[in-house]
Design brief:
There is one protein chain. By secondary structure, the protein is an alpha+beta fold. Among the domains are: 117 residues, no CATH class; 217 residues, Cupin (Jelly Rolls); 133 residues, no CATH class; 162 residues, no CATH class. The chain is built from 39 helices and 28 strands. Strand 3 and strand 4 form a beta hairpin. The longest helix has 21 residues. It is globular and about 90 Å long.
């Protein structure tokens, strides 16, 4: 709050204290931030409370936030954000604000509001800047670019776009003529996806007076306007791109159309995954500021999450930084800067901080890329952990806000023995200057110089230096994955596998990247020990990289497949292998037809590291190996013969971990360096994921029938005997009270089957935080549905499973639990070519779980007939509702094709629900719908199944209810009666 002595002398009173009441103790910035949490109608009501509230509640930046938060569909700007928000509220015309002048009040001054108003109305045409400090080059050769600029420093290159049609066709008027009705994505500070038709966006640009205007930043412009891709080509300097081995729908976002008015721009950031970028300007002028890697700009705060390494940057808007922070910098601390002119292309190397301000309306195209120069940096940035991510973004400032002199001594006294004592906080923060701070800026420039001097003294953007900050105890397979990574864990593993096959001449480089991202060197050591113990051939150079997209390292040998269990930590791994081995034993005893289609198990055991050396212990799933007994994973009384880590024990483990945050481990602490493994016979052929596009419709129908038959065989397989003593041991866990969990809806446990008891209570725990989990996943799950999820999911899961009272007052269920695979996806189905014998056991390249040297491409095999031969990967076996197995099959294998689901069900032939004719379903129609049951399992699933659903059925992103989603996705199930 600012006091004006002159105004007080003239008799003007300070309105603020009386008008804000108890809120007067808060600065204007904080009051404005609080208002953002209200609804548009509440803000309109609050504007009537007092004169100062009227002023604060009529600020356009506030209404912009309220409008974008409530938007559901394409945006149309109505001349002001308040009018736009009122339009979205669908208010009757008589409630529209009358056309009159706004009220004005004396006695209230706010520097915060004044600065924001100034930024909203300032013009940049008269801004003068120093001469460019970025080199300008014309006719730059590829060799010169690699030696002088790539991975070293930015450069402005002229002439690269001279022959592009876009050079003349990409003007506002021309694009309006050709693409006026095309909706493009808009950049704004929200996770929500905002679309505007180009004609509406042009109208917005002409009318707006925003301090941080919206701008088009669309990575799908080539899909919505394919003609734009014909107007430009990737310059010859940037054509090497390691992402080119991925199909278009597999690639992370890499190209953007950028259109923005004066004052808009990109605030300070480092490009995702430490990729490099080029940006070509076709219209207007852009002002660029850049800092080398690790040198955090003044006014920027970097947060690195300790759990998953996710990086969040707090930064002022581009315009605010140029107005408020740039003038404070000493000459030696100023960024590298330039003004980009039409036709010029700027190159931004990996890891460089940059900020862009549009000096007038601009149109540009940009692409990010991975090449041989930045590949290792990209792999490093993907790796789990947070130490290295903090250092990559913030240099030595990642060591916190303490004594930089002490950090200097601790770190560089021994470059191989880093002291991370300053980094052991939940969230890492590099604080230079709080973006919202109002100056007094006295001393800020000096402090910045001191920190930058430290950056100059020791930080090196060198891959060997940065790699030393990796947390070696975290492995790629078993650590939380950063939500900010440009691709998921499965996609990252597949990308490296495809590079390994597709770029054999660059395997030395790819191996280095795999060691950074996958701990590939550690897993290769483990593989060699297992091979030596079982007298298997040593891994060849071709074999040394794990294959596929799975959550465990898998290796293809000549005739064998070796899988090392690491997913979820040791306890999850030992239950995974134990259950799988118990399943194989029962499969043989029951002489199930499924046995023919499951790879033979050749060996299994446990590998552990002790005192620097590896030891291998064979284990067939029976009994408890000493190394596991010493790890305290199981109570003493449970160390019995049989399968102590079999199905029933695994169900209790799943119950204990249900609803836990992903970062919380379950009694596996101190158990690193122990890995179960399994050796199976290598199948001939290819995985379905690599031949999907080569299959005829008849082959696809045949696959659907095959899966129906084999799922039937799986679900008919008898369960192992129930060890009631084990169930009794965990009853004390079942008795534990749950906060915010309605225990009274569960039937009395003394009157319910033990396996059903565990299953129901597990579902209850999964429901407990379902809305929080869905909110964390966010887009494309609609917020309107997230708000309704708790009322859609039942409170009484006994009703969901159709329990009834049977003999001896025991509750039973009309749909018995069975073995479920739970992970039949396109990389767990094996296919063989049935027309020609393309594969033989002698040809290792022609038989593989993942690849036979073709990198998943055609290889002239189109037109051949493919038939399913095996179902793979039973480590996720569990006990549950058979309908759960439909989720991965329908969404991943069938990709939502209802005709394939119908064909599958014809071969499956088992009922998902068998109810006597005299029984009725309690609880209304929804409990009688199989579609409701399947939809509930999708919502409660540990994985983001809903993301897949809203990715396949994009029209459901505007759905008003879960019932609409349910019937669209799973409606075919309601026509299925089964064959009793």
């Amino acid at each position: 709050m600012e006091h004006d002595p002159q105004a007080q002398a003239l008799g003007f009173r300070d309105r603020r204290a009386d008008a804000l009441g108890d809120l007067r103790v808060l600065p204007d910035e904080t009051v404005c931030a609080i208002l953002e949490f209200l609804t548009p109608r509440d803000v309109a009501r609050l504007a009537c409370v007092s004169s100062v509230m009227y002023i604060l509640c009529n600020e356009e930046p506030l209404w912009m936030i309220l409008c974008l938060r409530t938007l559901n569909g394409p945006l149309q700007y109505k001349g002001s954000w308040k009018k736009t928000a009122m339009y979205l509220e669908l208010l009757p015309i008589e409630f529209e604000e009358p056309c009159k002048k706004p009220l004005h009040f004396d006695g209230f001054n706010s520097i915060f509001l004044y600065r924001r108003l100034y930024r909203s109305h300032t013009t940049l045409c008269g801004f003068s800047f120093d001469d460019s400090t970025v080199e300008r080059k014309k006719d730059l050769s590829l060799e010169e670019f690699y030696h002088q600029y790539e991975a070293k420093k930015p450069v402005l290159v002229t002439g690269l776009a001279d022959t592009w049609p876009a050079r003349h066709a990409w003007t506002t008027d021309q694009l309006l003529l050709n693409y006026g009705d095309t909706a493009f994505k808009i950049s704004q500070k929200s996770s929500r996806k905002i679309l505007m038709k180009f004609k509406d966006y042009v109208s917005y640009m002409k009318l707006q007076h925003d301090e941080d205007p919206l701008y088009i930043f669309d990575d799908k412009f080539g899909e919505v306007a394919p003609g734009l891709l014909k107007d430009y080509s990737v310059p010859h300097l940037f054509q090497e791109d390691f992402f080119d081995v991925l199909d278009r729908d597999e690639r992370p976002p890499f190209r953007w159309l950028i259109i923005g008015p004066e004052r808009s721009g990109a605030s300070w950031h480092v490009d995702p995954a430490l990729t490099s970028a080029w940006n070509t300007l076709l219209c207007g002028r852009k002002r660029w500021a850049l800092y080398p890697p690790g040198r955090v700009p003044l006014g920027v705060t970097v947060h690195v999450n300790e759990e998953d390494g996710d990086v969040n940057v707090e930064t002022p808007s581009s315009l605010q930084w140029w107005l408020d922070f740039y003038p404070l910098l000493a000459d030696e601390d100023k960024p590298i800067e330039c003004t980009q002119l039409p036709g010029e292309t700027i190159f931004v190397p990996s890891g460089w901080w940059h900020c862009v301000l549009n000096l007038e309306t601009t149109i540009a195209v940009t692409q990010n890329f991975v090449n041989s120069k930045n590949f290792e940096f990209v792999c490093l940035d993907m790796a789990p952990g947070y130490h290295h991510k903090g250092v990559c973004r913030a240099g030595l400032l990642a060591f916190g806000e303490g004594s930089f002199e002490d950090a200097d001594k601790n770190i560089f006294s021994d470059e191989h023995n880093f002291n991370y004592s300053e980094l052991n906080r939940k969230e890492k923060r590099v604080r230079i200057q709080k973006p919202g701070d109002e100056p007094n800026f006295e001393g800020t420039g000096t402090r910045a110089s001191e920190r930058y001097n430290m950056w100059k003294q020791g930080f090196s953007y060198d891959i060997n230096f940065l790699a030393m900050f990796l947390d070696k105890e975290r492995d790629h397979y078993n650590s939380p994955w950063s939500l900010g990574n440009c691709m998921g864990q499965r996609e990252m593993r597949e990308w490296l596998s495809k590079l390994w096959v597709g770029k054999p001449g660059m395997r030395e480089l790819i191996w280095k990247g795999a060691c950074l991202a996958l701990n590939a060197d550690k897993w290769l050591e483990c593989l060699a020990e297992i091979c030596a113990f079982h007298d298997l051939p040593s891994p060849t150079d071709d074999d040394r990289l794990p294959v596929g997209m799975g959550s465990n390292p898998v290796y293809l040998m000549e005739d064998h497949v070796i899988k090392i269990f690491v997913e979820g930590g040791l306890e999850a791994s030992i239950y995974g292998l134990g259950t799988e081995l118990e399943f194989y034993s029962l499969l043989c005893k029951a002489n199930s037809p499924l046995k023919k289609y499951v790879p033979d198990v050749l060996a299994s055991g446990i590998l552990y590291l002790e005192n620097g050396s590896y030891t291998v212990v064979p284990w067939d799933g029976k009994g408890v190996p000493d190394v596991i007994a010493k790890s305290n994973l199981i109570p003493e009384k449970c160390k019995v013969d049989g399968y102590p880590f079999g199905l029933w024990s695994k169900k209790q483990f799943e119950y204990r971990k249900a609803g836990m945050p992903i970062h919380e481990s379950i009694s596996s602490a101190g158990c690193t360096g122990i890995w179960p493994y399994i050796v199976t016979k290598r199948c001939k052929g290819k995985i379905f994921a690599h031949v999907r596009d080569q299959l005829s419709w008849e082959d696809t129908l045949s696959l659907a029938s095959f899966l129906g038959e084999q799922l039937c065989n799986l679900h008919l397989l008898p369960l192992p005997p129930l060890n009631h003593s084990k169930i009794s041991d965990t009853e004390q866990h079942l008795e534990l009270p749950y906060s915010d969990c309605r225990m009274e809806v569960v039937p009395n446990k003394s009157n319910i089957q033990a396996e059903l008891e565990i299953f129901i209570r597990t579902l209850m725990k999964m429901k407990k935080d379902v809305s929080i989990r869905l909110s964390k996943w966010g887009d494309p799950i609609p917020n309107t549905l997230i708000e309704k999820v708790d009322e859609y999911i039942p409170d009484d899961f006994a009703k969901l499973l159709n329990t009834f009272e049977g003999e001896n007052d025991l509750y039973k269920v009309w749909k018995p639990c069975s073995w479920i695979h739970s992970d039949i996806m396109d990389d767990n189905i094996f296919m063989e070519s049935s027309s020609v014998n393309l594969h033989s056991s002698e040809n290792a390249e022609g038989a593989g779980l993942v690849d036979d040297g073709s990198n998943g491409h055609d290889d002239g095999l189109k037109g051949k007939s493919w038939c399913p031969s095996h179902i793979l990967d039973f480590s996720n076996l569990s006990l549950g509702d058979p309908i759960s197995d439909l989720i991965p099959i329908y969404l991943d294998v069938f990709r939502g094709d209802p005709s394939l689901l119908k064909h599958f069900l014809k071969s499956y032939k088992l009922p998902f629900r068998r109810m006597p004719q005299h029984e009725s379903v309690e609880g209304g129609d929804k409990f009688g719908r199989l579609s409701y049951l399947a939809m509930c399992y999708c919502i409660l699933h540990d994985d983001n199944i809903l993301g897949a659903i809203f990715g396949i059925w994009k029209e459901l992103r505007t759905a008003k209810s879960w019932e609409e989603v349910e019937l669209t996705v799973w409606g075919e199930l309601n026509n299925y009666k089964g064959f009793p």
